[in-house]
Specification:
heterodimer, A: mainly beta, four-stranded antiparallel beta sheet, B: 12 strands
């Protein structure tokens, strides 16, 4: 299994630009999670999906952030417009079934907004 | 509500010595507990978990963890640390007493482990 796949691995953009991060979960997993990691705030859960349906988006910082999961094998996290304080590493993770199962993390996307 | 505390930001040990990374949790019901490791510029990797049963759980790379319900702790241990164990370690918890459709994990702030040669 290829594991969770994220693209791009690195993204550098200017303030005000739109950024789209992509994630392909492990085949057969039915839960998908988006996290953000910074030195100041640690690991934060932004949103998670179960069976392609958003369950909890309370961690999404503001309306500039949106996430979609059009099918079981693909999800996007979009930031529009981007700001320098959005600079972070964004991780996607997936898991199977209910909470007894561990989450598998992708390699992350390092976003830098200048 | 569920939460995790990792009381030590950093742990430093000499290679060959025992390694312990501490974790305490708070849940309303019974916990599912997890340990993850993160190497530089990588995603988090699953090490081990406690769901039910034996309080001593064995995981990857020689790590083990002991669930202690009375102390609400789930400390990670390795009998003999290696330089390659140097990384950031996260403890996480999910409350089994929570809403059945709630799959969120609560992560601790992380503990940086440095193993010196």
């Amino acid at each position: 299994d290829a594991g969770v796949i994220q693209s791009p691995r690195h993204e550098v953009t200017e303030m005000g630009q739109e950024v789209t991060l992509r994630c392909k979960p492990i085949s057969g997993h039915n839960s998908l999670f988006w996290y953000r990691q910074t030195m100041m705030r640690g690991l934060e859960l932004l949103i998670y999906f179960n069976n392609n349906v958003p369950i909890d988006d309370s961690g999404m910082p503001e309306d500039r952030f949106s996430a979609k999961m059009p099918n079981a094998s693909f999800s996007t996290l979009k930031i529009q417009p981007s700001e320098p304080r959005d600079s972070a590493v964004y991780f996607c993770a997936s898991s199977w079934g209910q909470g007894a199962y561990e989450q598998y993390f992708g390699p992350g996307t390092r976003l830098t907004v200048t | 509500a569920q939460s995790v505390a990792q009381p030590e930001d950093q742990v430093n040990v000499a290679e060959g010595n025992p390694l312990t990374v501490k974790c305490t949790y708070s849940v309303s019901g019974n916990p599912y507990l997890f340990w993850y490791v993160q190497y530089p510029n990588r995603g988090l990797q699953f090490l081990l978990k406690y769901i039910t049963g034996d309080n001593l759980v064995k995981g990857s790379y020689g790590f083990e963890a002991e669930f202690n319900k009375s102390q609400t702790s789930f400390h990670l241990k390795k009998p003999s640390a290696l330089v390659s164990d140097s990384a950031l370690y996260f403890c996480a918890v999910r409350d089994m007493g929570g809403y059945s459709n709630d799959y969120k994990l609560s992560f601790g702030a992380g503990t940086t482990v440095t193993v010196r040669a």
